[in-house]
Amino acid sequence: MIHSNPLRGPADVADWVAEGPVQFGTHEVGTGDDGGPGLGGDGTTALVLSGSLDAEEHGDHAHWTLWCPKELPDHVRISWEFLPLEEPGLAMVFFAASGHGGEDLFSSALAPRAGFYPQYHSGDMDALHVSYFRHKHASERAFRTCNLRKSAGFELVAQGADPLPPAGDADGFYRMEVIKDGPRVAFSINELLLFEWTDPSAEPLRGGYLGIRQMAPLKAAYRNLSVAPL
């Protein structure tokens, strides 16, 4: 194991880097069938993440990103469990994130970031990101997909169907998985492969940082983050 975090509550992300108005909480996890399809409950708690600003009043500045402070290598399997609690909104994961020109993602040489989306997809950082549970806008809810984008540049490079139900129909936690193996990226939910993509460029993104992002007013629970070598 390269990195693991049970994500039982705010204390488990006390050293993570918050950009934007993120709010932390705790979700009580039941026993028995409450753990989700094929997962089983464990009677513990999970980390709840939401926004602290009103989305209607603050618009796109109500969203946020939360970074794991550990820089990760390439050739990894990243997994976590996700449970939508209240919608609308959108969930996203950044990986292989770094600053332009080899700068560290948190270098003072980079422009400040405060959760506003263009700072992440068209600024001075490079990353891959998967957007899933895309229930923010009516068009996203009407035809649900998971999208993989490469930035800087906001290039849509892969897309697949999103099997996640609305929050009211969610059957406990769902297991999310990203494979980052050199130029190859794959994304699965509950072991169902949704898309696979191979970067055709001469210099695909390698190791870097992992970040969680949500669009307000989504409220969601997370637990059992793990990063393992392939």
Give the SSE layout:
Blueprint (H helix, E strand, L loop, with lengths): L2 E3 L11 E3 L2 E7 L16 E7 L3 H4 L5 E4 L8 E11 L3 E10 L18 H4 L3 E8 L5 H5 L2 E7 L3 E7 L12 E8 L2 E6 L2 E7 L10 E7 L3 E11 L1
Antiparallel strand pairs: 1-15, 2-5, 3-4, 4-15, 5-14, 6-11, 6-15, 7-8, 7-14, 8-9, 9-10, 11-12, 12-13
Key structural traits:
DUF1961 domain-containing protein; 6% helix; ConA-like_dom_sf; 7-stranded antiparallel sheet; 3 helices; mainly beta; 15 strands; DUF1961; globular; 230 residues; 8-stranded antiparallel sheet; single chain; Jelly Rolls
How would you describe this protein?
This protein has 230 residues and is mostly beta strands. Helix content is 6%, strand content 46%. It is built from 3 helices and 15 strands. It is globular. Mean pLDDT is 94; it is low at 32-41. It comes from Arthrobacter bambusae. InterPro entries: ConA-like_dom_sf (IPR013320), DUF1961 (IPR015305).
In short:
Strands 1, 3, 4, 6, 11, 12, 13 and 15 form an eight-stranded antiparallel beta sheet that branches. A seven-stranded antiparallel beta sheet has the order 2-5-14-7-8-9-10. The chain contains three helices and 15 strands.
Level-2 CATH architecture: Sandwich
Return the string of H and E elements: EEEEHEEEHEHEEEEEEE
Shape: globular
Strand content: over 45%
What is the domain tally? 1
Number of helices: 3
Average pLDDT reading: 94
SS class = mainly beta
CATH class: Mainly Beta
Cα-atom radius of gyration: 16 Å
Query: Strand count, sense and closure of the main sheet?
Result: 8 strands, antiparallel
- Helix content class: under 10%
Our measurement of the CA-to-CA distance between the termini, rounded to an integer number of angstroms, reads 10 Å
Query: Unreliable runs, pLDDT <50, ≥5 residues?
Result: 32-41
Total E-strand runs = 15
CATH fold-level assignment? Jelly Rolls
